[in-house]
Specification:
- By secondary structure, the protein is mainly α.
- The chain is 77% helix and 0% strand.
- Helix 3 runs antiparallel to helix 5.
- It starts with a helix and ends with a helix.
Length: 161
């Protein structure tokens, strides 16, 4: 049940990343065209939009990557490792990732409030929207790690019984 909810949530995240990539593409294209095409004006707002959109794309992509085990999960060891060694490395991965997630949640909360007190220079919107990506990433990593941990260690144990 929870896995199906997280599947839908991940699809929503992918959709948001896709839309933000479109916004990023347009903003960067306008920056480039504004420099080299004489009849297109140089827009000042495109730099901020591109920068803040990129931050959101990176963090949302990292969230999706943790769920799909393609981010922070490096599989460089041979496939025929002993099961105990593989389990130890997987446990180490989870311990380290939970620490990172908790750091992002705890200090990201402070980071967010620091950004919340600031305004962007050109567009004038509250920078808390950009800084919010850090604690949001931590919370999502924690949730996705918990789901993956359950799948790795607990759901397989039930199937074996």
């Amino acid at each position: 049940m929870i896995s199906k909810i997280l599947d839908v949530y991940t699809k929503i995240l992918v959709l948001i990343v896709t839309m933000l990539m479109g916004v990023l593409l347009v903003a960067v294209a306008l920056q480039i065209l504004g420099r080299y095409v004489p009849f297109i004006p140089r827009f000042l707002w495109t730099d901020e939009v591109a920068r803040y959109t990129l931050v959101w794309v990176v963090f949302l992509g990292a969230m999706i990557g943790v769920r799909e085990r393609t981010h922070f999960y490096v599989n460089f060891l041979p496939k025929n490792m002993p099961q105990t060694a593989e389990s130890v490395l997987r446990i180490l991965y989870y311990v380290l990732m939970y620490i990172i997630a908790l750091v992002f949640i705890r200090y990201g909360y402070r980071f967010f409030w620091g950004g919340y007190r600031q305004q962007s220079q050109i567009i004038g919107f509250n920078l808390g929207l950009v800084y919010f990506t850090v604690p949001l990433a931590g919370v999502n990593w924690f949730i996705f790690l918990t789901e993956n941990l359950y799948k790795d260690f607990f759901s397989t144990a039930k199937k074996g019984e």
